[in-house]
């Protein structure tokens, strides 16, 4: 468990690399701790990050209770306090968010769904159609991987 933080960083870097390989526009967030997909504007992300805002508020409250000034705390200590507040919040969650409510709020905010890769409006597909597209995408990638593996091993005896 000592290296969970490092593995999280490795995961975020790997995730960003994989997304870039798929032509998804991605960058690090302002804390440089997470990969962010540019297709969703920061203002919209912040509007819907109620949990993040609550976590931040709880972490600030905890710092105040400890007699600390949040702004004077070193960034690693702020992160640790946020992480503790997030863990307490996650332990109390009892289900998934309301996707329908989120979508109506996003529409009211003027957000239009587009693909992360091309910025075009996404297709209205059924779950089965999305699964079919995903299957063929993965099948092409696996075939290409095996093809490259075979090409590299032909010269060996």
Explain what this protein looks like in three dimensions.
With 157 residues, the chain is mainly α. It folds into 3 domains: 1-38, no CATH class; 41-122, no CATH class; 123-157. 61% of the residues lie in helices and 4% in strands. The chain contains 6 helices and 2 strands, in the order αββααααα. It has a two-stranded antiparallel sheet. β1 and β2 (35-37) form a beta hairpin. α3 crosses α4 (75-92). The longest helix is centred in the C-terminal third of the chain and has 27 residues, at 127-153. The chain is extended and about 60 Å long.
Give the key terms:
single chain, 157 residues, mainly alpha, 3 domains, two-stranded antiparallel sheet, 6 helices, 2 strands, 4% strand, extended
What Rg do the Cα atoms give? Answer: 21 Å
Which structural class fits the helix and strand makeup? Answer: mainly alpha
Low-confidence parts: 90-96
Q: How would you state the average pLDDT, rounded?
A: 76
Number of E-state strands: 2
* Lateral arrangement of strands in the main beta sheet: 1-2
Overall structural domain count: 3
Task: Name the beta content range.
Answer: under 5%
Query: How would you spell out the order of helices and strands?
Result: HEEHHHHH
Helical percentage: 55-70%
Given the C-alpha coordinates, what overall shape results?
A: extended
How many angstroms separate the termini? 44 Å
């Amino acid at each position: 468990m000592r290296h969970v933080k490092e593995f999280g960083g490795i995961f975020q870097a790997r995730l960003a690399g994989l997304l870039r390989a798929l032509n998804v526009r991605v960058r690090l967030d302002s804390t440089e701790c997470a990969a962010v997909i540019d297709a969703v504007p920061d203002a919209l992300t912040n509007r819907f990050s109620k949990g993040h805002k609550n976590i931040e508020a709880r972490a600030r409250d905890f710092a105040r209770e400890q007699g600390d000034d949040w702004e004077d705390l070193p960034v690693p200590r702020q992160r640790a306090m946020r992480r503790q507040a997030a863990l307490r919040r996650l332990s109390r969650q009892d289900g998934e968010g309301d996707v329908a409510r989120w979508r109506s709020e996003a529409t009211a905010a003027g957000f239009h769904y587009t693909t992360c890769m091309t910025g075009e409006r996404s297709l209205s597909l059924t779950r089965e159609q999305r699964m079919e597209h995903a299957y063929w995408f993965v099948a092409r990638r696996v075939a290409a991987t095996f093809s490259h593996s075979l090409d590299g091993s032909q010269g060996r005896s």
